[in-house]
Design goal:
This protein has three helices and three strands. It is α/β, with parallel strands linked by helices. The chain is elongated.
Length: about 80
């Protein structure tokens, strides 16, 4: 992980990253911590109600920064 941090400059923009089916705490927390570190803009793809439940159960506020999180159904086009 240090190698990645060494390559990041303050001028770099976070990357849009699809996080597929983050319906458990580990998946969701990894995406959220990466977003908080300004490494990625997570695009959460999966059943919205399950993602919201995982966030609630894990005390992760995915509504805090609406620019950092977009919820998509598993069956929608994420382009």
């Amino acid at each position: 992980m240090q190698y990645i941090y060494d390559k990041i400059t303050p001028a770099m923009q976070p990357l849009n990253v699809a996080v597929v089916h983050p319906v458990d705490e580990n998946s969701l927390r990894g995406a959220w911590e990466s977003a908080q570190a300004k490494l990625i803009v997570p695009v959460l793809v999966g059943p919205e109600h399950k993602i919201r439940k995982a966030a609630q159960d894990s005390n992760i506020d995915i509504t805090k920064d609406r620019k950092s999180t977009r919820l998509n159904s598993s069956h929608t086009d994420i382009s």
